[in-house]
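Why do we care about 3D structure at all? Because function follows from shape, and shape follows, mostly, from sequence. That is the central idea of this module. The next example makes it concrete: a single protein chain, its amino acid sequence, and then its structure expressed as tokens.
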Amino acid sequence: MNKPELLAPAGDLECLETALHFGADAVYLGGPKLQLRAAGVGFTMERLATAVETAHRMGKKVYVTVNCYAYNSEIPEIAPYARELQAIGVDAVIVSDIGVIAEIKRAVPELPVHVSTQANCQNYASAMVYRDLGASRVVLAREMSLSQIAELRAKVPEDLELEAFVHGAMCMSYSGRCMISAYLAGRSGNRGECAQPCRWQYALMEETRPGEYFPVHEDGEGMTILSSRDLCAIRFLDQLQDAGVSSFKIEGRMKSPYYVATVTNAYRQVMDALARGETPDTDAAMAELSAVSHRDFTRGFYFGELQHETAAGPGYRQDCVFAGVVKDYDAAEGRMVFEQRNRVYTGNEVEILSPGVPVRRMVMGEMTDKNGEATQDARTPAAHYGAAVPFAVQPGDILRMRKA
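And the structure:
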């Protein structure tokens, strides 16, 4: 069986470069229109061309989301947009709307189409319809179990690839097709404008007792009754591969470069161990995944129906603080230049995250600022600082510090 693809999110060029540096085989991102991230998360055509060029130089791929449910007024935009994407060398588009798929295939039949998870494809009959329309891949509905995926895989041709989410935030609504935000906030999740009301704190009230609120809590911190845990499939990637999944997708186009680096690196190392026929250290991988901002984890629907494990606590958990990004390294001098992301002091224990190797630790010595002046306090956001480092690093490596 072929080695699965690792597909990571990219909200901007920095996240794209980070994902590729830490081992993603492909990235998915939004263009300037017709995507499900309206809050400023999208590449201009110029930056999109740069992204494609960057990825292709490394032998990697770029998929562009065209996954909104289109209004009548948007249909005329689809064909010219698809031609633009084809012209800059995009490797595939990710589409939800069946009409948009048809428009793209009429305009640019050679442009590969991946069917978005928002299309809620969870049976082989639907998968075959999308294949007949020209789709080369289906992103499976998140509600599917491993056995259902295996059955679907057995009943569709091998040239139809299957992609599945393995990590990240999950929507409480069916395949993300939710109307709560549109109803409560006038912002449609199906247009990329979700206000995430499922993450809000709610109180319970009985209709005959107005103003008398009943506590809804799971522990001392309370409970958000609509908010899902985060999906984490790192302990059973081999079972997903055996079921026929050929692309493992990480959620998170709104996430930081630190999040993208850590999660991509963890999945890359587990996938590589499996490819070598080794037993991966999933405990170490889970520790890494806990180092970034996350909710409690769930296995999703992969092993059958969920019960009460979707009820997450009221907030995120995070074991580490993003301290900086390596921008340059001088092997002869044993020094690096890093871009500050959180305040670092001389004497802090700093962890260095590099692709494909265990986390390395060092105590930060005296630093130098942009003028070459010695300092013990890297206090200026996004400023560049020099520091000695006792091992080799690369541009793009991540500096982080454990929370006290």
